[in-house]
Design goal:
Low-confidence stretches: 1-15
Radius of gyration: 22 Å
Helix content: over 70%
Number of helices: 15
Largest sheet: none
Distance between the termini: 77 Å
Number of strands: 0
């Protein structure tokens, strides 16, 4: 009887684990695509670099890009996300995969259009949204998705790249060589904290977290306004569930941890390389 009772209780902890569902959720949120965009900041001139072009600046960007592609690994990040989601078991509906495919198809159509055409279509997009009888559901989904916060994380990474590039280009080699390991680690930790706390940063748009979030929300609303109402209803029901809230919380926590650790490693390597070159 004890064995029977235990067999009825123990599966409760694992029966709801859903690796395939976690993959559907990660695809819906675009987690891998978002993390892959992290490395792009390392090769930017403006707005990351606001100093005159110099051989030193070009060399730093080239090295930074190669290093960022190695350090900000989407493969390692996705492994961390999967592990985090596995700790929050719960079913993600099968229909989510098909809805994600329809959203991706719409995004591909937009990507193939002339940017000026998309700007001109802004009024039409707003009209489509206003004409939808399910606007409340569309709003609820756009607010509940993790995508906007993932977009905001790219701005945090952009600030970190900017704030490590600038002192490396304008700082003193003598001062850099004189820094102790403890001072370097303290400086990296300070930069990590300041960049995450820079909610009201007023610099260029790609570096403004809340602007990136709102741009993402608007893009989601536009996509949802072009989907069948049944798709939006499915998404709204899912995002209103405890499972979705737990998955979102787990993904965002893991995403922030991963981006913090990768950013720290990126900065640490650049600093050590600069110290090694200093006379």
């Amino acid at each position: 009887m004890i064995a029977v009772a235990a067999s009825g209780l123990l599966p409760a902890a694992t029966a709801l684990a859903d690796p395939a569902g976690d993959e559907r959720y990660l695809a819906l949120e675009g987690a891998e695509r978002a993390y892959r965009e992290m490395a792009g900041f390392a090769s930017m001139r403006w707005p990351v670099l606001e100093v005159e072009d110099t051989p030193e600046g070009d060399a730093l960007r080239q090295r930074g890009q190669a290093l960022a592609e190695e350090v900000f690994s989407p493969e390692r990040a996705m492994a961390a996300f999967r592990a985090a989601l596995a700790l929050r078991p719960g079913e993600v509906p099968d229909d989510i995969a098909e809805i994600t495919e329809r959203m991706r198809a719409l995004e591909a159509q937009d990507a193939a259009r002339d940017p000026a055409e998309l700007v001109d279509d802004a009024a039409a997009a707003e009209a489509r949204y206003e004409a939808r009888p399910d606007r409340a559901r569309i709003d609820a989904v756009s607010e509940a998705m993790a995508r906007p916060d993932l977009a905001g994380e790219t701005a945090v990474t952009g600030l970190r790249v900017k704030w490590i590039y600038e002192p490396l280009l304008t700082g003193s080699d003598t001062q850099l060589r004189a820094m102790s390991e403890r001072e370097i680690e303290a400086g990296i930790e300070d930069l990590l904290q300041r960049s995450r706390a820079a909610e009201g940063y007023e610099g260029a748009p790609p570096l403004r977290r809340e602007l990136m979030r709102e741009t993402s929300r608007q893009a989601i609303r536009s996509l949802l306004s072009r989907l069948p109402e049944a798709d939006v209803a499915t998404l709204a029901a899912f995002y209103a569930s405890d499972v979705a809230r737990a998955k979102r919380e787990a993904l965002l926590a893991s995403y922030r941890t991963r981006s913090d650790e990768d950013a720290a490693r990126f900065m640490r390597i650049l600093i050590e390389e600069a110290r090694a070159k200093a006379p």
